[in-house]
């Protein structure tokens, strides 16, 4: 589930009514943490903006999506991999998101970038790749600018609006792009037998990357609706001030 | 417990038959069940504050910080299942599942291997050890353990069984596979590993017996465990939860014996979980007992 939004914000407010008192609401962030997070979020916003602009320019110049991935791959890998830091932010507590949620979010992105598009070259020119790249880019620019403005205590309403509305379209689009890409990669994985270990071997283990990918695709079925409806609930809470009482499990 | 319960009911005593001041929470729970039969006592969490801690069954009403009228808040804990049932189910699974692979029941490996037997001694030894381990656990559940809580939420049984049964199948598949590769250092490695396994099983059992003897039947008292005459219990000098330490040792032994990576991964998963439990237990001991021995670590002597 590479295309998913996480709960909470980087040291800023995500709840509608608490925008004003945001930073003090959950924790007093030290000046060093605030400075670092502000820098981090500005840098990430900038990075994804560069990615977006490069993609648009490529399409305008070449008129095709073929070769687009190759032209942006270094930037994509850099900024998406850098996002691993977000797990550390959660671990040390400067961001209120749970480590598990951040971990799943970032891991699925890393999986798509390094274990699919980077490793399986024949699928790099698939249309589905552009699909999820566009979805990711717009989402990340919105998300990181949301965090940046929250940290600076100056969140324009339209950014908040964007963050809690764009996902309605972008999330399914991103998931579609990812699933189609993995699906396109399957024949190549089966033929090459990549990332797989067969018996016999001295550690008595086997792994079949092809079946692993099938299981990954299947896991989208239970996971995607949960994350999507979670975001819809967040949206109702933040934008419409609804008080949602969680069911006691 | 962090979320608002949908059934957080304020219940003041005048609505109910007279509750004596010396009534225990357990008795009040029984009264509550009479008027709300769908919420049996094990499902009830009663507290003085909606966000407060659950009151214990043994607590006496007049000893609590209440005035002439007591307001108790109720939360539904959801369907409950007894610990004994959960343990028996989650341990019987691996016992049988492993044997399915050991006897190479059809449809697991290729048809030419159906009901064949491995030519490696270590494979037979591994089956004996694995089976012994789970039989021991079942017997301990029935005859040794004294549980503090009677029940746990029903959903736990699905989670726990998936974990135990899933890992058992995964390990058993490779150990009993026709293409299984025996340990690199041969009989030497197997003998050493077997020794570790046996010692740790004995150790684990000794600790379970020692913990049982700390607590009289039917009671829920908690005391600091100390070493007894049994040398295996001397590990109490260094750790709070030597039963987990020995359990880790057993699985490490089994992993070395079979030289099977899935076994090592299962051991790792178990280690992480047991460390979390050990740290929690250690913290409770420290909180409850002022004179808790300072040298003890939760699970690994001197380290963790």
TrEMBL record, chain A:
Record's catalysed reaction(s): (3R)-hydroxyhexadecanoyl-CoA = (2E)-hexadecenoyl-CoA + H2O; a very-long-chain (3R)-3-hydroxyacyl-CoA = a very-long-chain (2E)-enoyl-CoA + H2O
Ribosomal protein as UniProt keyword: no
Enzyme Commission code(s) on record: 4.2.1.134
UniProt cross-references to InterPro entries, sorted A to Z: Tyr_Pase-like_PTPLA
Places the protein is found: Endoplasmic reticulum membrane; Membrane
Keyword terms of this UniProt record: Endoplasmic reticulum, Fatty acid biosynthesis, Fatty acid metabolism, Lipid biosynthesis, Lipid metabolism, Lyase, Membrane, Transmembrane, Transmembrane helix
Family, per entry: Belongs to the very long-chain fatty acids dehydratase HACD family.
Protein name listed in UniProt: Very-long-chain (3R)-3-hydroxyacyl-CoA dehydratase
Organism: Pipistrellus kuhlii (Kuhl's pipistrelle)
TrEMBL record, chain B:
Single GO BP term: very long-chain fatty acid biosynthetic process
Chief location bin: endoplasmic reticulum
Spans traversing the lipid bilayer: 81-103, 162-180, 192-211, 252-277
Pathway: Lipid metabolism; fatty acid biosynthesis
A GO CC term attached to the entry: endoplasmic reticulum membrane
GO molecular function, one term: very-long-chain enoyl-CoA reductase activity
Broadest EC class assigned to this enzyme: oxidoreductase
Compartment list: Endoplasmic reticulum membrane
Membrane-protein topology: Multi-pass membrane protein
SUPFAM superfamilies per UniProt: Ubiquitin-like
The 3-oxo-5-alpha-steroid 4-dehydrogenase C-terminal domain, residue ranges: 151-304
Domain TECR-like N-terminal: from-to ranges: 18-76
EC number: 1.3.1.93
Family: Belongs to the steroid 5-alpha reductase family.
Protein name according to UniProt: Trans-2,3-enoyl-CoA reductase-like
Record organism: Pipistrellus kuhlii
């Amino acid at each position: 589930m590479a295309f998913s939004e996480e709960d909470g914000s980087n040291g800023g407010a995500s709840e509608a009514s608490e925008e004003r008192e945001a930073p003090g609401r959950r924790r007093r962030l030290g000046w060093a943490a605030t400075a670092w997070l502000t820098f981090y979020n500005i840098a990430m916003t900038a990075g994804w903006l560069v990615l977006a602009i490069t993609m648009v320019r490529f399409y305008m110049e070449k008129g095709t999506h073929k070769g687009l991935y190759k032209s942006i791959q270094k930037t994509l890998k850099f900024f998406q991999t850098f996002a691993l830091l977000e797990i550390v932010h959660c671990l040390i507590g400067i961001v209120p998101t749970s480590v598990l949620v951040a971990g799943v979010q970032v891991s699925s992105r890393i999986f798509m970038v390094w274990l699919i598009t980077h490793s399986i070259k024949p699928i790099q020119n698939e249309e589905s790749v552009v699909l999820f790249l566009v979805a990711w880019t717009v989402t990340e620019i919105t998300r990181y600018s949301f965090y940046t403005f929250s940290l600076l205590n100056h969140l324009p309403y339209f950014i908040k609006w964007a963050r809690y509305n764009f996902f309605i379209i972008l999330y399914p689009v991103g998931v579609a792009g990812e699933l189609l890409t993995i699906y396109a990669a399957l024949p190549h994985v089966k033929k090459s037998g990549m990332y797989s270990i067969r018996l016999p071997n001295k550690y008595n283990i086997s792994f079949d990357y092809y079946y692993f990918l099938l299981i990954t695709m299947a896991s989208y079925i239970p996971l995607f609706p949960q994350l999507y409806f979670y975001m819809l609930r967040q949206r109702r809470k933040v934008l419409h001030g609804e008080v949602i009482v969680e069911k006691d499990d | 417990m962090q979320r608002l319960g949908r059934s957080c009911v304020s219940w003041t005593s005048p609505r109910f038959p007279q509750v004596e001041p010396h009534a225990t929470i357990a008795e009040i729970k029984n009264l509550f069940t009479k008027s709300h039969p769908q919420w049996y006592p094990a499902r009830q969490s009663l507290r003085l504050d909606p966000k407060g801690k659950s009151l214990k069954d043994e607590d006496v009403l007049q000893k609590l910080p209440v005035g002439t009228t007591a307001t108790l808040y109720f939360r539904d804990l959801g369907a409950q299942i007894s610990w004994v049932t959960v343990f028996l189910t989650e341990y019987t699974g691996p016992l049988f599942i492993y044997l399915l692979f050991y006897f190479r029941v059809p449809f697991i490996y290729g048809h030419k291997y159906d009901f064949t037997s491995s030519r490696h001694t270590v494979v037979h030894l591994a089956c004996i050890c694995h089976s012994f381990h789970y039989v021991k656990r079942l017997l301990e559940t029935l005859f040794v353990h004294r549980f503090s809580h009677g029940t746990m939420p029903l959903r736990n049984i699905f989670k726990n069984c998936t974990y135990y049964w899933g890992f058992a199948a995964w390990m058993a598949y490779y150990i009993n596979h026709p293409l299984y590769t025996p340990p690199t250092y041969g009989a030497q490695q197997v003998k050493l590993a077997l020794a570790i396994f046996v010692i740790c099983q004995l150790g684990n059992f000794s600790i379970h017996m020692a913990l049982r003897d700390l607590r009289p039947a039917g009671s829920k008292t908690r005391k600091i465990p100390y070493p007894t005459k049994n040398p295996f219990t001397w590990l109490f000098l260094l750790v709070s939860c030597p039963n987990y330490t020995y359990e880790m040792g057993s699985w490490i032994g089994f992993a070395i014996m079979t030289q099977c990576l899935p076994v090592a991964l299962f051991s790792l998963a178990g280690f992480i979980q047991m460390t979390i439990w050990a740290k929690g237990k250690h913290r409770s001991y420290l909180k409850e007992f002022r004179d808790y021995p300072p040298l003890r670590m939760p699970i690994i002597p001197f380290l963790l």
